[in-house]
Write a structure and sequence with these properties.
Radius of gyration: 22 Å
Helix content: 25-40%
Largest sheet: 8 strands, parallel, barrel
CATH topology: TIM Barrel
CATH superfamily: Aldolase class I
Bound molecules: ligand PBG
Shape: globular
Strand content: 15-25%
Length: 330
């Protein structure tokens, strides 16, 4: 004989599940939305023509000659991504990173080529010496010590050469003291007062930059970057870095990496209310790619969840190697 039982029914005024009943309902009440125009696509520009060499630790990311970088920029625009961040892979490296300000180095050439073929694409340039020095450090050395002020001088020259080539935004990633002010001054002195500065203001000394150093050939020949990049344990210090860079003239501030520093993004956005960028770095990208390639995670979902978390934390701008893939899947 079948047992009858009554369906218990709670009388609840508030049932939060009501707003999760359908995809349309969930979309209606969604608090955080990603959009392609908030993404910045990093590009690694090398010498030569017709070169498109995949970085082994970063599937889907390439070393591109200038012509290929232009093609990639146009393809990105087709996906809705309107901003690129350029890194240079020069043939010539020396102790003081002189090719960082060479008007005919890959980055300067790429800026001119992109601005003439896709004038509406925003060109941002990374300003650092590590890709240009033969020792792979971010500055000028005295023995094993990185000299702050001579490095700042060299960075300002690089930033001016990017602006002269047509860059819209320069992004110093070196973490020397006083570089934002020096770059602002150097730009203004040469009539580039409309070029903005996106400062890598809180850049941590992170293990997650490993694949980037393969891509850019910028692994330091000795030692590490702990004398200038931040200790991962610190957040009050990140706020001091931000405050100084804003005082010195930063227009946009950045936290880097992103996923391991979501709390820093939130604190920075709350404290300053400035346009805030977060860099979803090479190692964070490579981990998702590797897991996806092993069939261990659903890549599309993991990618969108990660980027949504960065936005939810407070980022207005996300620099990510996933820019095109994410834009296409929105
Ligand atoms: C240059 C620079 C680095 C990254 C961006 N600019 C490398 C580093 O500091 O060693 C890392 C970006 C990434 O990992 O995706 N200083």
């Amino acid at each position: 004989m079948a047992t009858t039982h009554t369906v218990p029914s709670l009388s609840l005024t508030r049932r939060l599940r009501r707003l999760r009943t359908s995809a349309t309902m969930r979309a209606l009440v969604r608090e955080t939305r990603l959009s392609p125009e908030m993404f910045v696509l990093p590009l690694f520009v090398c010498e030569g023509t017709g070169i498109r060499r995949e970085v082994s630790s970063m599937p889907g990311v390439f070393n591109l000659s200038v012509d290929e970088a232009v093609a990639e920029t146009q393809a990105a625009a087709g996906d809705g991504v309107r901003s690129v961040l350029l890194f240079g892979l020069p043939d010539h490296k020396d102790a003081i990173g002189s090719s960082a300000s060479d008007p005919n180095a890959p980055v300067q050439k790429a800026i001119r080529a992109i601005k003439s073929s896709a004038p509406n694409t925003l060109v941002i340039t990374d300003v650092c010496l590590c890709e240009y020095t033969d020792h792979g450090h971010c500055g000028i050395l005295d023995g094993e010590k990185i000299l702050n002020d001579p490095t700042v001088d060299q960075l300002a020259r690089a930033a001016v050469s990017h602006a002269a080539a047509g860059a819209d935004i320069v992004a110093p990633s070196d973490m020397m003291d006083g570089r934002v002010g020096a770059i602002r001054q150097a730009l203004d002195d040469r009539g580039h007062d409309e070029v903005a500065i996106m400062s890598y203001a809180a850049k941590y000394s992170s293990a997650f930059y490993g694949p980037f150093r393969d891509a850019a050939g910028s692994t330091p020949a000795f030692g590490d970057r702990r004398s200038h990049q931040m200790d991962p344990a610190n957040v009050a210090e990140a706020l001091r870095e931000m405050e100084l860079d804003i005082e010195e003239g930063a227009d946009i501030v950045m936290v880097k990496p992103a996923v391991a520093y979501l709390d820093v993004i939130t604190r920075v956005k709350d404290a300053f209310g400035y346009p805030t960028a977060a860099y979803h770095v090479s190692g964070e990208y490579a981990m998702l790619k590797a897991a996806a390639r092993n069939g261990w995670i659903d890549e599309r979902r993991a990618m969108l969840e990660t980027l949504t978390a960065i936005k939810r934390a407070g980022a207005d701008i996300i620099i990510t190697y996933y820019a095109r893939e994410a834009a296409r899947s929105l």
